[in-house]
Write a structure and sequence with these properties.
Elements: E1 5-8, E2 15-18, E3 54-56, E4 64-68, E5 83-85, E6 88-90, E7 95-101, H1 114-131, E8 139-146, E9 158-164, H2 169-185, H3 189-200, E10 204-207, E11 211-214, E12 225-229, H4 241-262, E13 267-272, H5 281-285, E14 294-299, H6 306-311, E15 314-316, H7 320-329
Parallel strand pairs: 2-15
Antiparallel strand pairs: 1-2, 3-4, 4-7, 5-6, 7-9, 8-9, 8-13, 10-11, 11-12, 12-14, 13-14
């Protein structure tokens, strides 16, 4: 690629500027060099987080545990009704913040066997389904930060489940754009993108019976990876056991390839799913045939660009076709 190009993401409607002069060496070092706080989450230290919201069996007595975050960004206590003060609106920061301990030992998510990754995936689904019983909570996401530069503070493989009493703007935009596409074409935007990517093939990284792994057309960062389900389903918590096994294979493969490509640099993982049906009627209507839950893995190679802070446009020096082509050449196995 020898030109500067602007690309529009059809789901987020965000622009990315591609310019090979911005293919700069990563500023952030390998996460293997990070000095992090000692983990209180290993097997044998359960007394530090004694109240388990969920656990699955394993050789250490458990394989996956879900516990409340002791420093939650949101709390269950409070009133989710908004109050207006002139031009401003506010409400209590009602929600939930749970920690998913992905392994009793020191293995990272990509180092786990598929069965153990599937247990993590099922823990995400079980806890989201349980949190949805609180009618105040409207949106749910899974986030994972790997590396100090990405926000990781403890030396353990963790992810977090966050439930909010509002539908955040990023999710609202995706719902709206998926609904607009479906209204116009009577076809799912997700299905159309998968079909186009499969025909084009240049950005495809991997595909199995249930999931499609690719580098997005307007990737916001070098080597960004998207994992989309093939089945039309807006709700992650409705994932089947078979799909959890298929996702475990796709996720493990994607993370291993990514780590080999960028030498274990920091990344963010985000799982986006539909809001609860207690959300507004407008939001619920946007789910009719148009939206799917999905996962995005975004490397954090450099500090945020000033241009992105000012305009919302991402800057990327590596075209997704180049990234996907390289990722395909890398081994799948651990």
């Amino acid at each position: 690629m020898d030109k500067t190009e602007l690309r529009l993401d059809p789901l987020t409607r965000e622009w990315t500027i591609f310019n090979e002069s911005r293919a700069l060496p990563p500023v952030n070092a390998s996460v293997r060099d990070d000095v992090l706080a000692e983990s209180p989450f290993r097997a044998g230290l359960e007394h530090f987080a004694a109240h388990a919201l969920h656990h699955s069996a394993g050789e250490s007595g458990w394989q996956v545990r879900v516990v409340p975050n002791r420093l939650p960004v949101l709390r269950v206590e409070g009133d989710s009704r908004a109050e207006v003060d002139g031009l401003y609106e506010h409400l209590d920061a009602v929600g939930a913040n749970e920690i998913v301990i992905e392994d009793p030992g020191t293995r990272t998510l990509d180092e786990l066997p598929p069965g153990a990754i599937a247990q993590v995936i099922r823990a995400w689904a079980v806890r989201i389904e349980d949190l949805m019983r609180d009618m105040r909570l409207r949106s749910f996401t899974v986030v994972k930060s790997v590396g100090r530069a990405a926000g990781q503070t403890v030396a353990h493989s963790l992810s977090q489940i966050i439930a909010m009493a509002v539908v955040p703007p990023a999710l609202r935009r995706k719902l709206r754009h998926a609904h607009e596409h479906f209204t116009l074409r009577r076809r799912s935007l997700f299905a159309d993108i998968i079909e186009h990517e499969r025909r084009n093939a240049a950005r495809v990284v991997h595909e199995n019976a249930g999931f499609f792994v690719f580098c997005p057309y307007a990737a916001s960062a070098p080597f960004e990876i998207a994992i989309w389900p093939k089945r039309e389903c807006p709700d992650f918590h409705r994932i089947t056991h078979e799909e959890a096994d298929q996702l475990a294979l796709a996720l493990g493969l994607g993370l291993r390839k990514l780590n080999r490509a960028i030498d274990h640099r920091p990344y963010h993982l985000a799982l986006t799913t539909a809001p609860s049906r207690a959300a507004s009627q407008e939001e619920c209507e946007s789910l009719d045939g148009g939206f799917r839950w999905h996962i995005t893995i975004t490397p954090v190679l450099r500090p945020q660009d000033a241009l992105h802070a000012a305009t919302g446009c991402h800057v990327n020096g590596i075209w997704p076709e180049v990234a996907a082509d390289y990722l395909r050449t890398l081994p799948d196995a651990p």
